[in-house]
Structures are given as structure tokens and as C-alpha cells.
Amino acid sequence: MSEKTPKKAKKDLLSWKETWIQCLRALKLFYHYRPNMLLIHTFYTIYTALTPFVNIFLSARIIEELSGDRDPQKLMLLVLLTLGLAALLSFIGALTRRQFKVEDQFLFCLERQIRADKMLRMDYCLVDDTKIHEQLDTLEQYCNGAGRSLRRVIWFYDMILSGIVSLFGGFSLSISLFTSRVPESAGRLTALNHPLFIVLMIGLLLAVTYLSPIFIVKADAVWSKGANSHNLGNRLFGFYGFLGHKNNVAGDVRMYRQEAFCEKYNTDKKGTFYSRGYYAMQARGAVGMYYVASTIFSVIFTGVVYLFVCSKAWAGAFGLGMVTQYISTISKLSGKVSSLFQVLGQARNHATFLKMNFDFLDIENTMIQGDLHLDKSSDKKYEIEFQDVSFRYPGSEQYALRHVNMKLRVGQRLAVVGQNGSGKTTFIKLLCRLYDPTEGVILLNGTDIRQYNYEEYLSIFSVVFQDFRLTDFTLGQNVAAKEEYDKTHVEDCLCKAGFDERLRELPLGMETYLTKNFSDEGVDMSGGEKQKIALARTLYKNAPFIILDEPTAALDPIAEAEIYSRFNEIIEDKTAIYISHRLSSCRFCDGILVFDKGAVVQQGSHDSLMQDSSGKYHELWFAQAQYYANN
């Protein structure tokens, strides 16, 4: 795979107005999640910006007194004041620095929480869209690899605030440099008093201060253009560089010597991060020159400041202490102003990435959120009916389901069968209202399900998806899907799911972690054990509808037979929908739906469907039976 660097044209930069809109919106978002964080950053930034000027002022007073009158009492007072303020400022700094560091470290988690919250609030039909995941993955890569994160705005805020505060502090200590007059006895040096000379000097200082960060901003723009290449380089490194660390592919790597794939990548000097790659070439070329130019102008600025201050001091405008004050203040002020210009430019370079974040966060849900409440007096006796339901996935011209008509009776055990791609999973997604029909209507007790409160409607379903996942938390928390749970109920559900014998073997029982990520006493479960835990989770929810998608695929034949023999006991009076490729397991169901090419081609019991020798069910049954029966 080659690594190319997409170029971003100048016109891709947002306007200054749009830049501030994006930055302010990001600050408001962080304030919404964690108000104290911005307050702490504000206080600490002002504190760190002003503290150096306090030290500069007092140090200059002490030097001025030492080089002048040398009054012991005044010197003692200045020293005590300096030490006292230093102790006080150190105490304040110690109190705020720790909290500032905590909040600063929390930013990474906070940014991930913002994106996670968006995904949790998003309609499932959007979450299921690969384009959404590609968009999210791109944002994560920009954030973690190229440093183009949402949280970088907080750093911009700190630097801009620090620059503004430093302007006031530096201006108050350096203004007298330009107002102090050289005595007439200084001869030609009295030209330093001329207003034009002062204006010229201020202009020169500002120009040099401005030019130095301009080159840094240009360098940052070059890095921004390479952000896509940076992401690709990270993906390649994450795959090739860590192939030997992945235990899930360790067997294949060894059997087929797949580590040979890594060799070309590891020896490719033109890769993003290698000696002939994009970043190395830029560092040796344009970016390197930008940094050199920035350094040159910084040195020029230092020379100009020393020349001007020392010339006025030589001419007698002020003493040695003020020389220290002016040089320190202007150098500090210039550094802050340069940083301010630099940050402003970087903020504009970064605004495009902020907009990408907000484009993701602004994705609107499309599913209707009904407000009709479920009838609690129905004692969970719900009936569902599909009326001429058709569906196609967004962006697809082909229908995944066509004209489905069926009615699910209360307490019924319904099996859903068909070949891969026949529409079984889509049928379940529509039933659970993870998607809405493209055509037709789904009714719950005679009412369109879109009119019901969405969260309440979801609460009546308990599902074991084929690709279910367990968490790294304890067994009990996995079953209950809660931190606090009814232990008796959890144990009962695990026993019904056939996990009782394994439960007795666990030394910590329900408090056993399912991996070792959080506890050294954690236990790794087998695929069949995980499936039993997932089944127990559906029972714990106690929803009136239970949907089981291949619930015994990972179980051995004996465990599977045990589950089937106790199926009615496990399900009790609930309505159950069972999806399986093993047709022999459908015989305990009251009815069977046979899907083929997105349509329900047959409905009925096992015996009635088997009588139709030309039907799809008969075909599927004998396609499997031929491997178990003699001719």
C-alpha cells in the first residue's frame, strides 16, 4: 500500500470569522461537560502569565537600590517583600497546579466521552452505517495521531489568554522605556528622545515580533497538509508494526509465515515516518527553512532590544536596575506576543479539523420519537403485526425485504429460517425498531410502533444477537447489565441458561471478572460459556419478547439438547422468536417463517411445511438431513 499525501489548498482554510465560531463552539462544549475545568484553566493561566512580571519588577528594584543609594532598610524591605511574595505565589501555584494538571489529563477522556455520547444518542440506523464509522475513525486518527484534536482548543485558549494578560503586564513595566528621556548632556544620543525614533523602534520591534511566528504558522500549515498521510502511516504502523503482538492471529502468522508481509513495510524508507518520507523531506526542506527563519528573527529581536535599552542607559535615561527590568520585560513580552500570533495562525489551520468534529456531532437523527406510552394494564400481552412491510437500506436500490405480512401472537414460539442474505436479520431489526420500514407499517396492539415512546418500545425486547459482546466487568454485572443487581435473580437466570455448574466452580462466583483486564483473578470464558451468559442476560431483563439469534451456535450438542429440552421452562410465558440455521432445532416452535430473497415464502408448523415437497423449507431440511441420514 502506498502512502500519498493529499494537498490542502489555501482556499481550504476557514475564514477568521468561521475560525472563531468553531473555536468558541468547542469551548462552550467543554464548558457544558465540565464547567470547572475552564475556570481552573483561566485562573492558572492568568497566574502563570503575571507571576514573572512581579519577579521582574521586584528584582529590578533591588538591583536599582544596590547600584544607587544602597539604603539598608529599603533593601531589607525589598528583599523581605520579594521573599514573601515568592512564598505566597508558590503556595498559590502549588494549590492550583495540581488541579490544573488533573483537568489537563482529563481532557483526553473528555473528548472521547463527547464522541461516545454522540454515538449512544445516534439512531441505530446511523450507527449501523459504515460511512459513520469511517467518519468517526478518521476523527480518532486525527486526534490520536496527527494531534488534530478537539481538545487542542483548550491549549489555544490558554495561550491566547496568557498572551493577552502578558500584554498588560509587559506594557505596564516597559512603557517607561519609551517615555524616559535622555538628558540633554548626552549629545547626539538625545536623538533617542525624538518621537519618530521611538515610533520607528516600536514598529521595528513589532515587525520582528510578528515575522518570527509567521514562519512557525507556515510550518504548522505544512504539517496540517500531511495529516491524512500521518493517519495512513499510523494505520500501517499499527498493523505491520504490531502483527507479532496479536494473539488472535498468532497461529496463522506462524503457519503461513505472514510476518514476511511486514518486511516490505519495515524497509520502505519512503513511508510517512521514514528517512525519505513526507515529514523527513519537509523537515529538510520548507519546514526546516521556516524554523531557521523564525530563529533568525528571534535573534534579531534580541539584538535590537539590547541595543536600544543599553543605548538609553548609556545616555543616562535610567539606571542599571531598569536595564534589567526592560530587557527582561520586553524579551518576555515579545515571546508572549510571538506565541500569540503563532497560536492565532495555528488556530486557523486547526479550524478545519474542528469543523470536521462538529460535522460529526451535528449529524441529525431521522427516526420518529413517538410520545405514546405503552399500556401498562395489558400485563405485557402484546401482539405485533407486519402489514405489507418492505425495506431497503439507505443508499441501496435493492429491497432487503418485500411485502412481509405476518402476525406474532402472544406467547408464541416462532422460528425464523432461511439462507444467508434472505432477510432474517433485517426482519429482526425492523421488529426491534432499529430501523423503520421503507413501506408498510408495523403494529403493536393495533397501533403503529412509531407512535410509541422509543425507549419504552425498546424495553419490551430482550435480544441475544449473533455477534453479541460481553464486557470486562463481573459475571453478575454482565448478566444484569447494571452495576448494582439482584444476585438471586442473576443466579436463577444463569441456572436456567445452563451455567449453574460452571458458576459453582468460580471462586468468586458472580463477582468474578470475565477477563484479567481489571483483575488478576479474572477468568476467560469459552464461546459456549459466553453464549450461556448472554442468554441469562436476556432472561434477567424479563422483557415480554425474547429474540434469540443462533443462541446455541457455540454450544456442544449435549448442551444444545439440554437448552432445547428446557426451552419452554426458560422462556416461560414470553413471546419468543428464534433464528437458526439448524432446522432440526425449530421443531419445538409453534410456527416457522421461511425467508427467501427478502420475502416470506412460507409460514406454518414444521409438519405442515414438510408436507410441501416443493417448498423452500422442505429443500432446506433435506439439504441438512442428507449429512445425518442414510440413503
Which keywords apply here?
631 residues; alpha/beta; ABC transporter transmembrane region fold; Rossmann fold; 3 domains; 6-stranded mixed β-sheet; 23 helices; 10 strands; disordered N terminus
Number of helices: 23
Portion of residues in helices? 55-70%
Main structural class: alpha/beta
Number of domains: 3
And the CATH topology of the largest domain? ABC transporter transmembrane region fold
What strand line-up does the widest sheet have? 6-7-8-3-9-10
The tally of strands reads 10
Protein model, in words:
With 631 residues, the protein is of the alpha/beta class. The protein has 23 helices and 10 strands. It has helices spanning 16-33, 35-66, 72-121, 124-127, 130-144, 152-179, 195-225, 227-240, 250-256, 260-266, 278-284, 286-315, 320-361, 424-431, 454-458, 475-480, 487-496, 500-505, 527-541, 557-565, 567-571, 606-610, 616-625, and strands spanning 384-391, 401-408, 413-418, 439-444, 447-448, 461-464, 545-549, 575-579, 591-596, 599-604. The longest helix has 50 residues, at 72-121. Residues 1-11 have low confidence and may be disordered.
